[in-house]
Design a protein that fits this description.
Layout (H helix, E strand, L loop, with lengths): L4 E5 L13 H6 L5 E5 L1 H8 L3 H6 L6 H16 L1 E4 L3 E3 L11 E8 L18 E10 L5 H20 L6 H8 L1 H11 L6 E4 L4 E3 L8
Parallel strand pairs: 1-2, 1-3, 5-7
Antiparallel strand pairs: 3-6, 4-8, 5-6
Helix pairs in contact: 2-4, 4-5, 4-6, 5-6, 5-7, 6-7
Length: 212
């Protein structure tokens, strides 16, 4: 497997009429010369591999939830790396291990009480793991499978509870960084090939168009 492909996502936002921004993508070619843009169709095909997710797919209440779980599905089945289109690589990412799952630190909070009402408040969760960038040279890495299953569980809960108004914090909780953060702290000892890199490797411009 070529473990130097940078995968990005675009056109998940309904009625998106802007071309994919290429500033960070062009810069990242220094480190990942080969790139790929993942579509909604690519993800819908993969979602069918998880029957519970397939049953929920058309009921997902926000497009960014599809994008968040879609990136996990794509790298789970294909390997290589995922980056948000506004994520800029600052230095070479180590890929020397024969088998590895690479994550990036998003931030370190002073207090877990700053987290959203549904997010895990275990003390170690002050260290937040990014969902805007991750990668592996392993097809169907079990860590990603665990993260996907946690997303499906949270998604089912959210849909069944039927909130009258969907808040941003609900969206972030379902398949956002709290999922990969929670699974990392809960299960990191199960995966000896898991590598968490510090914040010096990436810059995330946080355009966050889904919040509009």
């Amino acid at each position: 497997m070529n473990d130097r492909i940078a995968n990005y996502m675009w056109n998940f936002k309904p009625a998106e009429n802007s071309p994919i921004p290429t500033s960070c993508i062009d810069h990242n070619r220094t480190f990942f010369p080969e790139m790929n843009v993942v579509s909604v169709t690519d993800i819908e095909r993969l979602a069918k591999s998880f029957p519970d997710l397939e049953n929920l797919w058309d009921r997902i209440p926000h497009w960014i939830i599809k994008a968040d779980i879609g990136r996990l599905l794509y790298i789970y089945f294909h390997g290589n790396f995922y980056f948000d289109v506004d994520c800029r690589i600052r230095k070479k990412i180590p890929l020397d291990s024969e088998r590895c799952m690479i994550l990036f630190t998003e931030m370190i909070l002073k207090d877990v009480n700053r987290l959203g009402p549904r997010e895990c408040k275990n003390p170690e969760n002050v260290l937040r793991v990014a969902n805007y960038a991750f990668g592996t040279n392993v097809i169907k890495h079990p860590f990603l499978h665990e993260v996907i299953m946690e997303c499906i569980k949270r998604l089912a809960f959210l849909i069944e509870s039927g909130p009258s108004k969907l808040e941003q914090l609900d969206i972030l909780w379902v398949c956002g960084p709290d999922v990969i953060t929670t699974v990392y702290h809960r299960s990191k000892n199960l995966y000896p090939d898991l590598i968490l890199l510090d914040m010096s490797y990436l810059s995330h411009l946080c355009h966050g168009s889904w919040r509009d």
